[in-house]
Amino acid sequence: MLRLIARRALSGVAVVAGVLTLTFLLLHAAPGDPAEQILGPTATEEQLAAGRRALGLDRPLAVQYVSWLSRFGRGDWGTSLATGRPASAMLGRAWPATAKLILLSLLLSYGLGLVVAAIQAARQRTALDTGLSIASVTLVALPGYWLGLMLVAVFTYLLRLLPAFGAAGFDADELHGWARVVDSLRHLALPLATLTLIGIGAAARFARGAMLDALEQPFIVAARAKGLTPARVMRHHVLRHALIPIVTLLGLSLPALFSGAVFIEAVFAWPGVGRVLVEAVQARDYPIVMAATAVSATLVVVGNLAADLVAGFVDPRVRAREEVTA
Amino acid sequence: MSAALRDGRGRIGLVLLLLVVIAAIAAPLLTGGDPDTPRDVVAMRFLPPLSHDVHGAFHVLGTDRFGRDVWTRLAYGGRISLAVGFLSVLVSVALGTAIGAAAGWWRGWPATALTGFTDFALALPRVVLLLLLAALWRPNAALVILLLGATGWMPVARLVHAEVRSLAARPFVEGATSLGARSRRVLWRHVLPNALTPVTVAAALGVGNAILLEAGLSYLGLGVQPPTPSWGNMIASGRDTLVNAPWVATAPGVMLVMVVVGCTLLGDALRDVAGGRSSVIGRDGL
Fold first, then answer.
1. Which of A75, A106, A268, B261 has the fewest CB atoms nearer than 10 Å to its CB?
2. In chain B, which residue's Cα lies nearest the Cα of A102?
3. Nearest chain A Cα to B231, which residue?
4. Taking CB atoms and an 8 Å limit, are A289 and B129 in contact across chains?
5. What ipTM is given for this predicted complex?
6. E strands of B67-197, at which residues?
7. Residues 6 or more apart in contact with residue B146 via CB below 8 angstroms
8. pLDDT for position A1
């Protein structure tokens, strides 16, 4: 098991390093550079050259890459060209917000998706099954940025129930105890609902397939023949068996969830990594783009690693297979 | 394909897609006038759906803040969304098939390298890359197609790789080889045609995904630029008028959902016909 973790962690590090190298090269291959960004359109050629020299942009690409890498590795992520704040501070505040959104939505969408799928598997080929299938196909098809806007239109503008922007109200610092918790929950409601509604559709679609596969297994016939109640067969035999592919998908859906979060954070002005990334990309704020890319790649890699480990935990066969081939 | 249409889902999916495709192709016949140019803004802006303007023209989906007919823009915007969706999937299917087939058919270090490269590319955060590329190069529709194609081939390569590997052990391949067919000919004429069934499923799902991504980039202002209509930038402009004219943002979203549901249903039907298992090909979850 330890060797498995070590191997996966190593390949994860390789992916993050690869993403960063690719981003570095892309930023340097693109037209325009940070000197132009800082000095603005009125700068003369001499000023631009001086600016490039000051930023170290006149050195060979390989030298720039190595020096950037060593600074980055030591934790010196530079400062934002747009705001002058340190990149590490900006990302340090942003990543917990994104992680909170993604993890809560993952829990809720798989929890509710499994319930929907179990109902469908138990009531196969009935009108209820068809209706839920149509609902989940539609949910998966919803673009998050559009669903978010529609929820804002209904819950913020029409019903005036929930706030649509940010993670806390302007007066959050004045609030204490319970009022503060309520305030942050109210701000969480719409972005979380958007991400989760789409997630329920995806989870239910996949879990239904996994449960139908499980229902065809011989051990289900055996369990029924023993006289177990349908509910017990569902809980102890079908669900348990179906969990293996579902947990694997859990890891695979993390990059998708993160992508979803990028758009949803943009819609709701949620102060997370996705919003930092979108704003930095639009402003060509290179140090922030690099830092945000590093953090998002790491979040995805760590998520995949966690899913691998959980898959090994749920299914002893996975563990055994990995140990044989390792 | 014909077998997939005997499935109810396949039929509904195809009808949904055909409706949108016909609306987009026949846009000049079905709509009134130019989708881009503002008209008589003061008198014609923010007309609600199903209303007549001062000139007596009927606006089935209302008008936006420049007095442009939403239905006209929707139909013309569909041309871009659909073209980007279908063509970018064509690019990723071509790339993925080539890479997957090469990695699955031949042995040795190039095959290992291709497999490793596929796994690596699969782990890259696609949306992050797309955002970067789109922001750095301010792409037109053609470049968006290439970008989506170049970041979407990996699942296809995986599928083709697995299919080619399993087909290579089948008797008909040995038969073709025994008859003296060269390796490349066996791959091209005997193995690949049999390996492409799961690819059609992935392609059907991929079209919906690519259309959502294009709309997402346009929504963030990084895709198709206004005044040219695309469903993504129509949603973005409707965002600012959500309070007084919610129909502007609603209509393109409904079109997006129709197309993606159509692709998903068609993909499901194709997969069941092909006898595949429940798919793990997810979308990029926008």
1. A75
2. B285
3. A146
4. no
5. 0.85
6. none
7. B88, B91
8. 67
Instruction: Decide if A145 and B219 are in contact by the 8 Å CB cutoff.
Output: yes
Euclidean distance between CA atoms B93 and B154, whole angstroms: 9
Residue with tokens 């291709």: B114
What is the length of chain A?
326
Between positions 124 and 163 of B, the ones with CB within 8 A of A are: 124-129, 131-133, 135-137
Higher pLDDT, B90 or B285: B90
Mutate to test the interface with B, among A154, A263, A273 (most CBs of B within 10 A): A263
Q: Compute the distance between CA of residue A243 and CA of residue A250 in angstroms, rounded to an integer.
A: 10
Tell whether B215 is within 8 A of chain A (Cβ).
yes
Using a CB–CB cutoff of 8 Å, tell me whether B221 touches chain A.
yes
Cβ atoms of A190 and A151 within 8 Å: the answer is: yes
In chain A, the residue whose alpha carbon lies closest to the alpha carbon of B214 is A143
**Closest approach of chain B CAs to the CA of A291, in angstroms?**
12
pLDDT in tens, A52-69: 887 777 788 888 888 888
Tell me whether B275 touches chain A (CB under 8 Å): no
pTM value is 0.85
Q: Any residues with CB less than 8 A from the CB of B175 and at least 6 apart, and which?
A: none
The amino acid occupying position B125 is: P
Report the Cα–Cα distance between both ends of chain B, in Å, rounded.
29
Which tokens go with A153?
A: 């239109």
Binary contact (B127, A262; C-beta < 8 A): yes
CB contact under 8 A, B136 and A26: yes
Interacting residues of A204 by C-beta distance below 8 A, sequence separation 6+: A112, A113, A114, A116, A117, A120, A132, A136
Q: What is the pLDDT of residue B6?
A: 76
Nearest residue of chain A to residue B123 (CA atoms): A15
Q: Is B108 helix (H, G, I), strand (E, B) or coil?
A: coil
Torsion angles phi and psi, residue A79, rounded to 5: -120, 155
Residues of chain A contacting residue B242, judged by C-beta atoms under 8 Å apart: 149, 152-153, 157
pLDDT, tens digit, 9 for 90 and up, residues A68-95? 888 888 888 888 877 888 988 888 889 8
**Average pLDDT across chain B, whole number:** 84
Q: If residue B51 lies in a helix (H) or strand (E), which one and from where to where?
A: strand B51-52
Mean pLDDT across chain A, nearest whole number?
Answer: 84
In angstroms, the CA B134 to CA B147 distance is: 8
Task: Give CA–CA dist A117/A133, Å, rounded.
Answer: 9
Q: What is the distance between the alpha carbons of residues A189 and A275, in angstroms, rounded to a whole number?
A: 18
Residue whose token pair is 């098809």:
A141
Helix (H, G, I), strand (E, B) or coil at A304: helix
Q: And the tokens for B175?
A: 């038969």
User: What residues contact A101, with CB distance under 8 A and at least 6 apart?
Assistant: A188, A191, A192, A195, A261, A264, A265, A270, A272
